[in-house]
Amino acid sequence: MRLSDYDKICGKVVRDGEFHALGLIGKKPPQCSLGYVQSDNFLEAACHEPNISCILCPPEFAGHEMLLKSEKGIAVGEVPRAAFIYLHNYLVDQENGYCPVYQRTQIGEGCNIHPSASIPETGVIIGNHVTIEAFSVIREGSCIGDHVTIHSGAVIGADNYDFCWDKDGHIVKMKQVGQTYLADHVEIGCHTIVGRAPFAYERTVIGENTCIESLVTVSHACQIGKECYIGGKVNICGSVTIEDGVRINPMATIKDSVTIGKGAVVSLGGVVVNNVKHGTKVTGNFAIEHSKFLVDHLRKLRNR
C-alpha cells in the first residue's frame, strides 16, 4: 500500500511512501507502518521510530526539517487522527488481508455454557472446563484459556468507543478488529466488559488467576498481568498496562496508557493519571502516594 493510493482519505501527499500496516506512535507498531502526529510531542518520536514508514501530520508540520530529513512518506490533513481512523475503517471493510480470516469456533472439553450465551460460529477459541453463564457475549477474536469463569451478562471482545472529531465536528469511531485473550483461571464478573484491541496484530490480555469483579470496563489493548484483583465498577481506559499482583479497589478510574507497577494498590475511588511505581499504594483524585494523601487530608481537616 502507498499513500498515493489513499490520498482522498489521508489528505494531500507531500512525499509518497509505502506502508503495510497502521500503528500508533510509541506503541511498538509493526514494521513499515503508517502513523499520525498532531503535536510536537510526538513528531520527534515518529521521525525516529524505525517501524514507522509514513506519517500523517497537520499542514504546519509538512516542511519541518526533522520530518523531511527522516525520508518517511508524508501526508497532511487538518485532523490527522481522523484521517488515520477513516483509513483504518476503510481497510477493515476491504478484502485485502488487513483483517484476520477466522476459523470455525473451537470449544474444549468439560465446558458449562448456558444456552442463552452468545458465541459466534467462527473466530472464538474456548479451552477446557470453562463456565460461561447466562446472557454472556463472546465476540470474534476471543481466546479463552482453561478453567475460566465468565459470569452473567459479561461481554468479552466488545467494541469500545475509541473516537475523535473530524474537521466538520463529526464523531469518527474506530472499528476494532484485534483480539482478546483470557488466560487460565481468570474470573470475569457479571456485566463486565473486556474490549478487543483496535488492530488485527494486537490483543487485550487478562493474565492467569486474575479476578475482575462486576460492572468493570477494561478498554481496548489493555495488558493485565497475573494474580491481579480488579474491584467492582472500576474503569480502565485504553492501552493501560497493569503488572502482576496489582490490586485496584472498587470505583477507581485508570487513565489511558498508564502503567501500574507490580504489586501496587489503587485505593477505593482513586483516579490514576500517572504511572504508579512497583509496590506503591496510591489514593485520591488525582491519585498520589497514600501516605502523602493522608498528610494532606489531615492538614485540610486542621485548617477547617
How do you describe this structure in short?
This protein has five helices and 32 strands. 14% of the residues lie in helices and 28% in strands.
General description of the model:
It is built from five helices and 32 strands. It is of the alpha/beta class and 304 residues long. It has a ten-stranded mixed beta sheet. An eight-stranded parallel beta sheet has the order 6-8-11-16-19-22-25-28, with no helix packed on it. The protein is globular. The mean pLDDT is 91.
C-alpha geometry: globular
Strand composition percent = 25-35%
- Count the E strands: 32
Assembly level: single chain
Main-sheet strand order equals 7-9-12-17-20-23-26-29-31-32
Query: How many angstroms does the end-to-end distance come to?
Result: 64 Å
Parts with pLDDT < 50 across at least 5 consecutive residues: none
Look at the structure and give the mean pLDDT. Answer: 91
Count of DSSP-assigned helices: 5
Into which percent range does the helicity of residues fall?
10-25%
Characterize the largest beta sheet: strand count, sense, and whether it forms a barrel. 10 strands, mixed
Structural class: alpha/beta
- Determine Rg (CA atoms, Å): 21 Å
